[in-house]
Amino acid sequence: MADFNLPKKLLLGSATAATQIEGGDKNCNWYQWSLDGKVGNGESSLTGADHYNRFKEDINLLAELNQQCYRMSIEWSRIEPSKGKWSSDGIAHYREELSLLREKGILPLVTLHHFSCPQWFQDKGGWTADTAVEDFISFCEKVVEEFGDIVNEWCTINEPNVFANDTYMDGKYPPGHFGDMKSYFKVSRNMVIAHIKAYKLIHRIRTEKGFSGETAVGFAHHLAYFESSRKGLLASLGRGLITRLFQTVYFKGMVEGQLIAPLGSGYPEGKGCYCDFIGVNYYSRHIITPTLNPGALFGTIDFDPNVPDERKNDLGWEIYPPGLYKVIKKCWDKYKLPIHVTENGLPDADDGKRASFIREHLKEVKHLLDDGVDVRRYYYWSLLDNLEWNDGYGPRFGLIEVDYNTMERHVRPSAEYYAEVCKNHMVKEAIE
Ligand code: BGC
Fold it and tell me: pTM to 2 decimals?
């Protein structure tokens, strides 16, 4: 692979989510989930990477690593720790963090919901409650009024498909239900409607208040590349069904405003285009095998068992860069909307594969750009080692290593490599 250039208009950076790195939040539902022993090795979201206290150090590192954009989330439970009560400390904290990013010339993309919520919201039934959308929109309104002057790029909801699946089908996230398909659909429907309302709200507030900068609102979709294990009608039906349930219903809802079966029907908030960009979180390729077991959403989704170890990350997921091209191209051909690669990364504790992972995926981004696809951002996941949700702190996704005993940060060699890429917009073949 020869060296290649990337255009300057493609901003390069990294992504995080509050609950995975901040630590210290007892009002978040992941705190109770940790107390219930549901996080690997008895670990707790309370630990985090102490980012809440060390955000200045971390933003300095971001700047030293030449990153131009940063995707972060604002934790709902920090802003509204109990229903209807706004925390001035939480608001002041994020104001300071976002202002510092701006001072350093790093463009923030703020996620409003990244898998966690306040415990009070969870206690009301979380995203299955009839009041869920209203509660979420009231939080969004507060956040956009508070920070809309310094944030113009917003990601409403992270991975509604993974969230609905892991909360109500796989039982990995609170409230930990298994095979509860009715709730899976209810959560998905509520998230679609919440996204559309948040989209309208963000545009309205930023316009009314005359905030500067082009408003860009989207959501982050988890798009794995799906392949069938077999040929034939049943296999293609299985793949089609899974693609519909895991990907298409969210595109239809969050981009076009349309509810399609099994989420519902019609246009609950009117027909329109409710994304200024599409956020793509891409990690791997999955093989679908059809099954008639409804608990498995009519098909099993696995990694290819024949992939050699050198092409797997520390969690055993296949490293498959061409999938990034394929999922984005499909999305572009359908919607022609700007693309943000809102997450792409791997757990790689010894840092042996991360630099080439970044290089190979950026090569796919380059192909997309050459083919006319409007890719505008690339956020490596993640800036820091973090809480990999129910898997705990074992998997190491960070460009920056965190020593959880001392909370010291160590910049990994791959981060130095990526820093050069960010600085020159030139991707080198040689990894020193
Ligand atoms: C999520 C992140 C998570 C990452 C790696 C995405 O599904 O948005 O929060 O850490 O994948 O599993």
Answer: 0.97
